[in-house]
Amino acid sequence: MSRIFEHPILMRRSARTVRFYFEGKELEAVEGETVAAALIANGIDVFGETERGKPRGFFCAIGKCSSCLMIVDGEPNVRVCITPVKEGMKVQRQFGRSGVPW
Amino acid sequence: MVKTQLLVVGGGPAGLCGAIEASRRGVETLIVDEGVELGGQLVKQTHKFFGHEGFYASVRGFEIAKRLKDQLNEHVKIMLQTTVTGIYEDVVVLYDRQNDVPLEVQADYILLATGASERFIQFENNHLPGVYGAGAVQTLMNQFMVLPGRRFLMVGSGNIGLIVSYQLLQAGAEVAAIVEIADRIGGYDVHLRKIKRFGIPVLLRHTIKKALGQEKVSGAIVVQVDENFQPIEGTEKEFAVDAICIATGLVPSVELAAMANVKIEYVPELGGFVPYRDQNMRTNVENIFIAGDLAGIEEATTAMIEGRIAGLTIAQSITKANLSREIESLQRELIEFRSGPFSEKVRRGLAKFFPQRVVEYSREPQVDSGPVGKLRPIIECYENIPCNPCQTSCPTGAIVVGGNINSLPKIDYEKCTGCGICVSKCPGLAIFMVQENVEPGFDLVIVPYEMLPVPEEGERVIALDRDGKQVCEAQVIRIVRFPHKTNLVHLKVPAGYATRVRNFRVKKQENVFVCKCEEVTLEDIEKAIDLGFTDYEELRRYLRIGMGMCGGRTCRSLVLSILSRKLGKSPEELLKGHFRPPVMPTKFESILRGESNED
Amino acid sequence: MKTEYRIIIVGAGIVGCSIAYHLAKFGESDVLVLEKNYISSGSTGRCAGGIRQQWSSPHNVLLAMRSVKLFERMREETGFDIEYRQGGYLVLSYDEQEAAQFEENVKMQKNLGLNVELLTPNQVKQRFEYVNVEKVLLATFCPTDGHANPHLANFAYAFAARKLGVTILTHTEVLAIEPTGSKFKVHTSRGRFEAKIVVNAAGAYAGQVGSMVNVNLPLESYRHQILVTEPIRNFFDPMLISFSGNFYIRQTKHGHFIMGQGDKDERPGLNYNVTFKFEKDLAKKMCWLLPFLRTLRVVRHWSGHYNMSPDAQPIIGESPELANFYYAVGFSGHGFMLAPAVGEALAEKVLFGETKHVSIAELNVDRFERSTVRETNVV
User: Fold this and answer.
1) Nearest CA distance, B566 vs chain C (angstrom)
2) For the structural domain made of C4-47+151-219+311-369, what CATH number should be given?
3) Which residues of chain B have pLDDT under 50?
4) What was the ipTM of the complex prediction?
5) Residue B355 CA, distance from chain mean position
6) The model's pTM
7) Cis before residue B582, ω within 30 degrees of 0?
């Protein structure tokens, strides 16, 4: 939704940015953050759809609940809440089960 | 194949403390954690911890994580972004996510400190993006500094619900309300008071019925419940929120323990299914230990003590050194920490594993509010929670919690010098300083403040009472800043208000537009007047007020009244500014059409 | 209240404020600026904000070139963003005699070091496709010409001068000035002030201020009307102007088009009213020149004054008849763009007895006793 730039207690740890792609669109992320954090910071909260077509976002942010599965660099079912974002990474929404890998 | 004497699964407070105690005694230790950094949930805790100095009372959670990491020695190896995928009959398998490779480990001892996961609850549309676990919101907000919403509904009033609500305010978000299905608040009274001072409504006997929205959350419907927690028809309330935060509890992560043949029992008081363990945190499987939330949902302080007990017991088994004195001392700490009313439920749960003892404490609150006119602290701490930094930080020994950490603090106003250290140290932000008649007609109130914006000295602010209600105007006369970021704000309030004022709100309001066409705010205008602009026309030329499509019809009188107020001039003394045609913007082609009609 | 100053300046338009700022910048801050209304209430606050170096008279070219140097540094010097933009001035000629004169002007301007070029109508069309070049004979273009927000530039000098210790009193009208030999007594609506030196920077009211001390300045003020449209996305870089076509137009930073023309039938005198005839005439002319304007709405229309001198060049200097009485007046519609250089030059003249950057020696009032060549590049 938005980044927090001013906080009464915390300091930002890194200002270095990396570029990644969401559905082909180039976006900016802060080095060291997870893909989920980077997407939310860019206003993207719908990460995909379930098999029955229900929208899906993250829920636990610590890799436990599997609500945040996305396709990362072509690989489906990646838990983006515990996957650090990398320069040039390609992230796509996943719709239901992944496709046949051949 | 990797061999280690001790494998610690989970690098949160329990796992780190276990590793610290074992490695300090020479035990080769491997810590495996799923996250990108050690510390578990501590890294996202921005509040100051309760307890006593031995367990980092008054230190913020993320700072505690750093201090624990610093205590790991050369006997410790760490693997991050690594998940233990199974405790098999033959080996333990770690999956290294970064290198996408499994690693087989043989460990003589295993300390499982896998923590817990969020308890999910059932309501309509609970699948929508925007329905987030409270811990998840904390992770994003405090670890990555990203806010996943602007306006939140908090479901659950346990400590996590209350703390996360407070942290949302610190991060600049709004909390529309906290709903609690029970008839009483689940968390500490001091956490509740921190939230109430900002006027956040807490609805008891209410729960969420439905999340609104198609693609993502756009609102929530909340409903009152009866004694059997059933929704009462017709009591629905709608909240316009873009995020719903679920803080309805945690579920111990028992998977690995169960795979390792640890007996799993259903103990609702501890969070549901929990592994069996004894007082030394040893399970029914000889070389497997547990600690922290996995052993029962509790606070980080008890998790740290449990981790230490487990680490010491494991070290004792490996090194054959006699560590019983250290272990017993920590067990006594646990008994003391769990003696308060707040731990009653945990004690009931643990009683299923071994008998529980309690130590007595004083329930009497302070009644004396001190000599009127003296600068002195007022302690608003009425719940027996295990905490004593007020006592240990007082340089003159004026505050006494006593032999049992659950007792309520007592203050001897004769000994108190009014230094204010206790105010800045109290983790519950429950101590205030007052002094009546600091100058004729005015009292002084000093409040702890951990929000933005920090006002300036001299600034006038809106004083709030314990329920966040506006009571009067106050002037900030001094701000004492501390490295731990709890600022002490000295407020001058009208006489008689010292007993009521416990918080304040800065007046600075964003998005107060005076000229909507050109998006000029009240703040812009006040700043310009402070800079030296004195006329409507000067302000118009400087800020473009009235240069928009409306021709100044909306803003002119507003600007004149602001000028009149700021300059102390009556409206008649001010020039009204020019009025220029056309009153209705007119297209060139319309003007031309008129011209050709004339011809 | 302090009533004695070394220097009193009459008028807090951009000329008065620029003089005050430069005096203070050179170390003299014992300066009082008296303003009968508010800062930028006169011609500065009513002008279009063009900054042009393409003139027919060499004095004006040099003053304007120096001004451009100072405009370029203004944000840095004063801390105010004055919305300065060097988008060039495109000057269109519709008259054969004028076109011939343009070729001469460009030679002279180039000799003075100005980067300026002659364009054929086709070249104009190529670079500025939105301009209707019908009937255009010739054009000139100078890329370092441009525009700024005149209000902000006026405030920039005023606030920077105040910061350096200058006093500016607004709503203080000068009623009479009494020379007493060693000093001037200045009577105002807020009491009497005294100064050794008085500077007349009163814009449209400069003639009246001169006559208070019997210094005759050959000036007449003429009303000029101007209007502004609703804003659209910025795309229009240059100031587009024509003397023979009698118009000027530019797009402001905020997207509005600001435009105007002169009226040869206008009588001299002070008149702040506006006529609908002006809107009709300008609509017809500008929609023909720039057809995209047709659907734009006029949002405001007002008037200001050109304080005209007989040769349409400013009158700057110390009075030959009355020592210590200075003036920077008669800008003939171009005070805003010349103000930085003139303020600097006059401050130098007052403090050091001579100018250091650009000469104003030829611009004193006594030139009218000799022969002088009229500036023709005036709308």
Assistant:
1) 17
2) 3.50.50.60
3) none
4) 0.93
5) 34
6) 0.66
7) yes
